[in-house]
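User: I want to check something. If I give you two sequences, will you return the structure for each one separately, not as a complex?

Assistant: Yes, each is folded on its own. Here is the first sequence with its structure:
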Amino acid sequence: MSPLQAGDAALLPSWAGGSASGNTFPAGRGNEAAQKGHYAEAVQAFTEAVKLNPREHRLFGNRSYCYEKLQRYEEALRDAEMSLRLQPGWPKGFFRKGKALRGLKRYAEAARTFEELLRLDSANAEASAQLEACRALLRVSPWPCHPQPCHPWLLPCGV
């Protein structure tokens, strides 16, 4: 999945971002900043855009992408899940969610998310590669760490 596509901004109402170069609207500024690798700046712009248009799933998806690039995986996951609540079945939302889960080292959940994406879009090569990477990480990583023990006799990892 491409990071941010010009179409993501072009489909927004003109007041929310549009697609013109040198855009002064928040979503357009966010897209331009993200494409230049200025992810913190992009997060700020997408946050402004979300305030203007809180029902636009692409804004949450784009901000999720930026959070993931900043290794702020919890926030990336939150925004990916919001994008899917606003637009259930959105393939890019599943991709963003899977990447955030992988960043959180929740490999089994990430793999299930990429599998779900592949059910929607079986030709998605990036999702296939991410799924294989998650499966490989599951094979080599120790048993999944849980912040809280599942059973009284299990201790959380790191204890």
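And separately, the second sequence with its own structure:
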Amino acid sequence: MGDCVPKRGPALPGRPRPLEPGGFRFRRRRGREWKSPLERRAVCGKPAVPCWSAPGGLCTEQSTMPFLHGFRRIIFEYQPLVDELLGLLVMPDRERQSSLESPACLGSDRSQLSAVRRVLERETHSPFYQEGVSYALLKVTELGLVPAAEILLEFGADLSFEDPVTYYTPLHIAVLRNQPDMVELLVHHGADINRRDRIHESSPLDLASEEPERLPCLRRLLQLGADVNAADKNGKTALLHALASSDGVQIHNTESIRLLLEGGADVRATTKDGDTVFTSIIFLLGEMACSNTEEAQVINRFCFRVTQLLLAHGANPSECPAPESLTHLCFKSFKCHFPLLRFLLESGAAYNCSLHGPSCWSGFHIVFECLCSHLSVSEDDSFSTDLIQKGQTLLELMMASSQAIQLPSNFEVNTSSCRYHGEKVRTLFCSLKQLERSPQALKHLCRVFIRQRLKPWPVDVKIKALPLPDRLKWYLLIDHAAAGHEDL
């Protein structure tokens, strides 16, 4: 006789390979290959049972994987009970009678619920009742029928029952369908709020954080006590899920990220692959180069807002290694990311590697490298003036972070590569070295002192509120675009 086995997906350590949704592969024996479970049933007179082979060749028992035979039981045993229960609750749209995705009416009145009770009482001792009522709970959860779900739970529906195709539990499905009231019902009846599905290792909070539409479920899960810092086997937390799921154009999980941070999400979370809270932002900023102007602006606004949230909760954008440092990326492309880099420096971000210091990378070095690189390809005066002004602003922001100007050791700049305006770059470098060797001017010391006293960062709004003349405010803000600043 032929046995049917599921298509093999990637094996999990110490577990049978998971079933791919809807997929069967039938072992050929005696020159015959069954095309479907129904054909095998018709010919052999018995249902086609998925056979799960463990690494040792023995069939895995139901005691270790309780619902592995879900396909057979849905098709041949408990599907009629599920259909009868749903038929009492759901009145499908006439134009889409074969689909429960968009029902015209979801029944929850007393007569319908009473009918459901009568069916459950009648079938309580029937074979596969437990599987039938548990699978019905999955479907009722998907539709958001809270009163019906309460009855199914009263009659013994299993909260840990897994969908035979996706292996999601009712709580996972409630989150995916954005049913916050159902989420609360299931948790109050004992559903494991932090349970991970066996395929993707996603918790309900992970799933809720991946789509802006699931924000109500995310808020409800946090209120119910979900572990905001629980991580999967790769170290990925709900916060990292929310960041990785945002594309900056169509999917903006800004509000989800804010809720997770306010709920205590750890901004230092790192996966086994080294991904941090800034990895996705760095990726999206790189995508701006391939985007049209409108998309680039949307991505930039999203990255700026998320960076503000992360820094407000203590994230360090200057960590090592350099490819994972948002500050390093912004320095390397300060022409494109000047507003974001200015915000980082205004917020107190280190302009050197926060772990190894300037020996690893230094903002001073990178600024002059970029100036020489860009000024070697363009002699446009307006372009060069704007670029040098931005470079000068960044240098002053770095110097204003401490009273003593500390440049990297053996810091030199080779302007020979600058085909245009090399003299301007050289003058800027020489003035910087002179400031390092000379006693600091009183106005510089005052600026550093006032900015330090106005912490926590950022200080721009606080400076603008000071009872000072505008010219002094512009000096404290390090705003070269302000009128009259050059006269100070």
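Because they were folded independently, the notes below concern the second chain alone. Strands lie at 4-8, 19-26, 90-91, 105-106, 352-353, 357-362. Residues 1-70, 94-105, 483-488 have pLDDT under 50 and may be disordered.
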